Amino acid sequence: MVFCVMANRIDSSFIENYFPTLSKMTYLNNASMGIPPVTMADAISEYIRNRMRAAGSFDQTLALLKEDRILLASLLGGNYSQYGLVPSTSQAVNSFAQAIDYPNGSNIVICNLEFPSNYIPWQNVSRLYDVELRVVRSKNGAATPEMFKDLIDENTRVVAVSLVQFASGFKTDLRELANAVHEVGGYLFSDIIQAAGWADLDLVRENVDCAAGQAAKWLLGPIGAGYIYLREGIEEDLTPRFLGWWGVEKLTEFEYFERVPLKDVRMFQVGSPVMMAYVGLKESLKVLLEIPNDIRETIAMSNADYLRERLSEETIDHYDFGEKYNSTIVSCSLPDVEKVFERLTKEQVHVSLRNGRLRISPHFYNTEDEIERVISLLR
Predict the structure, then answer these.
(1) Number of domains in the chain
(2) The domain containing residue 310 runs over which residues?
(3) How far apart, in whole angstroms, are the C-alpha atoms of residue 29 and residue 359?
(4) Shared-domain flag, residues 134 and 119
(5) Which of 161, 174, 203, 216 places its Cα 20 to 30 Å from the Cα of 230?
(6) At 340, phi and psi to the nearest 5?
(7) For each of the chain's 379 residues, which pLDDT tens digit applies?
(8) Are residues 120 and 183 part of one domain?
């Protein structure tokens, strides 16, 4: 379907065609779960019907998974060979974290804003391999690159940071952090789950060594469709700690012989993928890619900036990190915030409560009219 943009919003016919349920609610909770397009639901239903008829082949399965990787590369940069498919962000973080060699005296730098999927694995690595874990203490919802640099030294093996922090919405400068950690011979890992889908993101340009996420948020896809990205060349320095039949050479040869890990990011694919999820992911990515990345980001950020502007006018306290560090996640502080949240929910306005604050997260399919509705209910 052809889309058009008018006054920083997508033409309503595009939204009505792919996201008809949005007309029945005010949905501003994309940092929790995005609304999938109807084409995703149709594709999953067709996949199940084909299973019931014993239709399809393993070659078709492999072709579909390759297409998912090609679409991910179109959205996030690089080549499809740099993307592997894993069930979740957590599995991706664990796979990368435990594939690294940690010499004596090594340290890992994270911050205290992270969602558990991007700090629990690093805590575990710290215990298992006797690695020092250094934690940046955020200030007013922000952990700047300068704060990370204060903890990076010649023994830093990994800096792990979300591109966009899930609760506060702070967006970091990945290239600046990549330069800092690469100077000491370490790796930069980024959880991009709160950016992929709305941000005009090129992982090659950002110079990250590894990135990961899953599809259920801004990618508008199913839970269970996760992915992992590796910078070209670093796979030679990594040793997978968990290996399965999807992560080795000669995948389709089933007799017993000594198996060798694949020499690319697919070494982290342990077992059979959740096929329904990846069938759905393909359709969600196709819809997203109908809109150029820069236009999708411009519209989503325009919605978030308008929200911040209106919150300021209403003197409602909220995080505003400035143009460089703002994202599409807007976190605000209100008296009796739980009651406010309940009132919004009753009015079919979908937002979140995170860390005692109201979190509002518009996407490209939202409008300023919807933001005005929220503002009227916050008064």
Answers:
(1) 2
(2) 12-30+291-378
(3) 8
(4) yes
(5) 216
(6) -60, -45
(7) 555 665 578 889 999 999 999 999 999 999 999 999 999 999 999 999 999 999 999 999 999 999 999 999 999 999 999 999 999 999 999 999 999 999 999 999 999 999 999 999 999 999 999 999 999 999 999 999 999 999 999 999 999 999 999 999 999 999 999 999 999 999 999 999 999 999 999 999 999 999 999 999 999 999 999 999 999 999 999 999 999 999 999 999 999 999 999 999 999 999 999 999 999 999 999 999 999 999 999 999 999 999 999 999 999 999 999 999 999 999 999 999 999 999 999 999 999 999 999 999 999 999 999 999 999 999 8
(8) yes
Residues 216 and 363 in one domain: no
Distance CA 109, CA 255 (A): 43
In three-state form (DSSP H/G/I as H, E/B as E, the rest C), the secondary structure along 220-281 is CCCCCCEEEEECCCHHHHCCCCCCCHHHECCCCCCCCCCCCECCCHHHHCCCCCCHHHHHHH
Q: How far apart, in Å, do the first and last CA atoms of the chain sit?
A: 39
Three-state SS string over 177-225 comes to: HHHHHHCCCCEEEEECCCCECCECCCHHHHCCCEEEEECCCCCCCCCCC
8 A C-beta contact, residue 291 and residue 19: no
- Residue 51 forms part of a structural domain: no
Task: Please report whether residue 39 resides in a domain.
Answer: no
